[in-house]
Task: inverse folding
């Protein structure tokens, strides 16, 4: 039996009145009297199968044991008489989250990378039901209407969106990218407690890649991918209406810099003296470089241009140099002066390592085994504790195996990877859920750079390596909910300082703020249900959010 304080089914004495409170009984306006009018009994909005209230064969005692309760009578005949506990059930959405939460380290690779990549690649072949919102680039006038089918602005707290072009090292998967949005939302719920019924996965369908053009089962648009102004306008129209955060670029940058700072602490080196080589200068690599450059500038008082001189970015053509004309805007900020490398080999990683002698080397290239024995040994010649992060995932795309790096560096290297390993896991899932939680709870329309700095500082402060240099550079994934609380506190405090909050009842006391945050973090547990008047209830209380709710509204709107 759980000993969690919320399982006592008592309202939190300070914050139980909050709309998103998760303690005490839960209001519910659902019945089954209108089941005959719904498109399919499996998605009807009643307490037995609605995702938000679903208890399946384990209804709370207040909904079943007392037959005089207004909900109870309507549940008889729908459920077998024996009540199952959460521990005995076999399938249920709450059970799904509970199982993963209990075994997060073991399940992480199943719900996210690398298994999620296989599901994305086979999306059209295994499609059963919509799990999010599909927005069509050739039907941009309907964006607001399409989103509205999933709820009003006050109904949805958190949206994850992708255009499906760069997914988990497997490239352009187009409309199948909806599943990465789904997976990241699952992580957000697990890692930060954002209510699953108040989230929305979205994919921007910008047509498919050429591989998918010949797939008869493909469910998305059947044209080559749209680029240029039409694409830019499509993305801009979507993101202008929401506070926007890039989990892969900014989230990866935040968690990586937090791990670097912990590594620098162990090695006794200052951030302002550090030299960094980034191998793989796509969006993730440049995002990390951006975060490191900004942190160096903030700590040293240097300009961002001068801070960028401590970073060397390597990509497919080798070291990025100014004369290369096809650089992206992000890459151009880190391109080196041609004169520095005139007459010197710069087409591969090893010669760059030999000349630069970096303290930190990060891999975001998706080029397996790029960190060779020679590269690691060369770096270890000049640095007492080389910091080496092979971050590409899935694991088959790692730049090196951590155990090889350990051996080649004679166990001197400080290592973090992009997935769960027996070393620090430098995964953005440690960062973006907590940032999202803080942004949701403070009700702000903006996410500012200083909030990201506050995030990385809060993550770095919790590094196990600060107490024991032999421990991980970032906290273990099993501690991620605690990390999310600290991140949310940091984000909220920074937002208050910058007067960017619209939620005015945020506690000023630090201890109360933490309790306020925890009270609003959803957990996979059954709460007793209290019947409320349907006319006064929110859409969530009436079961009108999510797939079932969307279909119900469509049914009502359709001609008879």
Result:
């Amino acid at each position: 039996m759980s000993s969690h304080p919320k399982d006592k089914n008592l309202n939190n004495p300070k914050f139980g009145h909050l709309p998103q409170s998760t303690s005490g009984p839960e209001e519910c306006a659902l019945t089954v009297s209108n089941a005959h009018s719904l498109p399919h009994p499996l998605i009807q909005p009643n307490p037995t199968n609605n995702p938000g209230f679903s208890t399946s064969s384990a209804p709370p005692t207040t909904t079943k044991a007392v037959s005089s309760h207004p909900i109870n009578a309507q549940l008889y005949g729908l459920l077998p008489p024996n009540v199952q506990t959460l521990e005995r059930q076999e399938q249920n959405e709450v059970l799904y989250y509970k199982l993963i939460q209990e075994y997060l380290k073991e399940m992480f690779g199943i719900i996210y990378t690398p298994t999620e990549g296989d599901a994305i690649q086979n999306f059209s072949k295994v499609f059963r039901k919509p799990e999010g919102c599909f927005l069509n680039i050739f039907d941009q006038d309907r964006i607001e209407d399409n989103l509205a089918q999933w709820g009003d602005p006050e109904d949805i707290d958190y949206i994850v969106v992708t255009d499906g072009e760069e997914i988990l090292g497997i490239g352009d998967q187009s409309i199948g990218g909806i599943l990465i949005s789904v997976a990241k939302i699952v992580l957000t719920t697990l890692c930060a407690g954002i209510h699953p019924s108040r989230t929305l996965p979205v994919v921007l369908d910008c047509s498919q890649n050429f591989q998918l053009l010949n797939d008869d089962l493909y469910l998305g648009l059947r044209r080559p991918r749209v680029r240029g102004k039409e694409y830019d306008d499509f993305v801009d129209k979507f993101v202008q209406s929401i506070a926007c955060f890039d989990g892969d670029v900014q989230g990866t940058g935040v968690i990586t810099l937090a791990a670097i700072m912990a590594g620098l602490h162990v090695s006794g080196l200052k951030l302002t003296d550090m030299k960094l080589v980034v191998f793989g200068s796509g969006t993730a690599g440049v995002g990390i470089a951006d975060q490191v450059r900004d942190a160096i500038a903030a700590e040293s008082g240097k300009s961002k241009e001068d801070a960028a001189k401590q970073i060397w970015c390597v990509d497919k053509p080798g070291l990025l140099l100014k004369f290369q004309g096809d650089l992206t805007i992000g890459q151009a900020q880190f391109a080196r002066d041609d004169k520095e490398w005139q007459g010197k080999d710069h087409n591969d990683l090893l010669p760059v390592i030999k000349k630069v002698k970096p303290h930190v080397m990060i891999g975001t290239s998706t080029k397996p085994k790029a960190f060779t024995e020679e590269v690691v040994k060369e770096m270890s010649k000049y640095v007492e504790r080389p910091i080496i992060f092979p971050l590409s995932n899935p694991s088959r795309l790692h730049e090196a195996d951590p155990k090889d790096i350990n051996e080649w560096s004679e166990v001197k290297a400080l290592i973090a990877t992009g997935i769960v390993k027996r070393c620090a896991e430098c995964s953005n899932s440690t960062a973006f859920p907590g940032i999202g939680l803080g942004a949701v709870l403070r009700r702000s329309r903006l996410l500012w750079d200083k909030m990201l700095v506050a995030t990385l500082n809060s993550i770095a402060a919790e590094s196990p390596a600060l107490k024991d240099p032999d421990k991980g550079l970032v906290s273990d994934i099993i501690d991620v909910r605690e990390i999310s609380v600290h991140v949310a506190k940091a984000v909220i405090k920074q937002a208050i300082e910058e007067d960017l909050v619209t939620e005015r009842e945020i506690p000023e006391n630090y201890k109360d703020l933490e309790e306020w945050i925890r009270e609003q973090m959803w957990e996979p547990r059954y709460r007793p249900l209290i019947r409320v008047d349907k006319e006064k209830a929110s859409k969530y209380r009436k079961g009108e959010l999510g797939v079932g709710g969307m279909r119900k509204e469509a049914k009502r709107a359709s001609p008879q």
The chain has a mean pLDDT of 82. The domain at 105-242 is CATH 3.40.50.10380 (Rossmann fold). The first strand starts at residue 26 and ends at 28. Residues 247-267 form the longest helix (21 residues).
